[in-house]
Amino acid sequence: MDLFRRSWREWLGDVGLTAAAGALGTLLLLGTEEDPPPDVTIVVPRDLAIGAVWLVFLLLFRRRCPAAVAVTMMFAQWTATSALGTAAIAVYSLAMLRSWRTVLPIAGANMALIVTLFWITSTWHQFRQGTVVFVLLYAVLITAGMLVRSRRQLIASMDERARAAETEQRLRVEEARLLERERIAREMHDVLAHRISLLAVHAGALEFRPDAPADQREAAGIIRRSAYEAMEDLREVIGVLRDDAPGGDPERPQPTLADVSALVQESRRAGGRITLEENVPDLGRVPARVGRHAYRIVQEGLTNARKHAPGAEVTVSLDAGAELGVEIVNRLPPGPPAAPLPGSGAGLVGLAERVALLGGTLEHGRTGDGRFRLRARLPLETAHARETGGKGEVHGSELL
Q1: What is the pLDDT of residues 302-317, one digit of tens each?
Q2: Which pLDDT score is estimated for 253?
Q3: What DSSP string describes 88-119?
Q4: Could you tell me the EC number(s) of this protein (predicted)?
Q5: How many structural domains is the chain composed of?
Q6: d(C-alpha 178, C-alpha 186), whole Å
Q7: Is-contact 246 281, C-beta < 8 A?
Q8: pTM to 2 decimal places
């Protein structure tokens, strides 16, 4: 049944309030027994038995229908003195679970009935004393209930804001990931368009070479036409990702690892204190695909350093072995960590997409000596094999 379907915390709170109602009712019964109203005989066992029934009623229904319980106890307190405590706790539950618009009319009517009860059954001294006690008691209980309700609403509002902030952060990260994928796709379009155009040029040269056999010229013509068709298809598919209007600026050449030094020089001219440690003996060994992503990693690392540690010394390290290592280290400003800027971390999400595309690893975070380190390891052999197509590569120059 729904009456018994509660968490253990809810049961614990309900039992505690019911026990408080029983204790308050017992105290009121004992006080009334010591100074009973005139011509009133109190049978304690009967009173406690009736009060116990109303305690069970409070325990079962106070959470499901607090207003109905408070109204019922308003009249039930006439049946037993010990039920006065149950009625008071019912008003407290109502203040804790419902708004003041519901609480104040019911509490006012309940207080009016209690005053009427004292007026009918008590002496003037008992009436005055009882009225003061119950007014103060109800004022305290209603205030406490409203405070508990306000605190619960505040906690619920904070939880809702936290969930909204988490959702917004997830959306920002997802948006950054999608934007970075689009950017990578645009770069791939530029690179592939360049290579396919070279393929078409070489195939065209072979097609119109007079001393070439007819079957080779026919095959070269098919390759040339297929290359142009592939370029058109590529433009249609990837072109939807571009913000450029038709007829806008021409496509820019994509950066390579050799352009990192120019990037560092540009940052130095902007006022940055940057040290470049380059241990790449043969730049030609680094595939253009890996070099392009390495350039973007260095670019994002320098941007983060300018944003979060302006004026700090930055060290950029490039190391080529079995894999290409890219590391950007900068010292963090003194003092406690500053609050993250809006959108913080979106660039790192994009770098993670790039590194995952190459099958590498990316690490970033604070070090024990008060610095921030961004380090990526990019495999070279796999990328080189993909770029060359294996050992059977035939350069366009060999066809001519």
Answers
A1: 888 887 788 789 999 9
A2: 62
A3: HHHHHHHHHHS-HHHHHHHHHHHHHHHHHHHH
A4: 2.7.13.3
A5: 3
A6: 12
A7: no
A8: 0.46
pLDDT of the residue at 327 = 93
C-alpha 260/C-alpha 31 separation (Å) is: 89
Token pair recorded at residue 129: 């004393």
What pLDDT score was predicted for residue 240?
57
Q: What are phi and psi of 38, to 5 degrees?
A: -65, 140
Range of the domain at 207: 175-252
Contacts of 323 (CB under 8 A, 6+ apart): 360, 377, 378, 379, 380
Q: From 17, 9, 140, select the one nearest 89 (Cα to Cα).
A: 17
Query: DSSP characters for 228-294?
Result: HHHHHHHHHHHGGG--PPTT-SPPPPPP-GGGHHHHHHHHHHTT-EEEEEEE-S-GGGS-HHHHHHH
Residue 108 in any domain: the answer is: yes
Residue 99 shares a structural domain with residue 34: yes
In this structure, the answer to whether residues 81 and 203 fall within a common structural domain is no
pLDDT of residue 315: 92
Bridge partners (DSSP) listed for residue 273: 313
Phi, psi of 211 (to 5 degrees): -90, 5
Q: Assign residue 367 a region: left if phi > 0, alpha if psi is -120 to 50, beta otherwise? A: beta
- The low-confidence residues of the chain, meaning pLDDT below 50, are 1, 245-251, 338-344, 389-400
Please tell me the predicted confidence (pLDDT) of residue 329: 92
**Which residue matches tokens 């990702």?**
241
Q: Tell me, what's the pLDDT at 245?
A: 44
pLDDT digits (tens, 9 = 90+) for 125-147: 777 877 888 888 888 888 888 89
Name the maximum alpha-carbon separation found in the chain: 135
Query: What is the distance of C-alpha 399 from the center of its chain?
Result: 56
What pLDDT, on the 0 to 100 scale, is given for residue 43?
Answer: 66
Inter-CA distances, 201 with 195, 204, 219, 349, 392, Å = 10, 5, 14, 38, 20
Residue 247 shares a structural domain with residue 285: no
Interatomic CA distance for residues 246 and 269, integer angstroms: 34
C-alpha distances (whole Å) from 361 to each of 57, 140, 353, 357 are 64, 62, 10, 10
Domain end: 227, 252, 277, which one? 252
pLDDT above 70: percentage of residues in the chain:
80
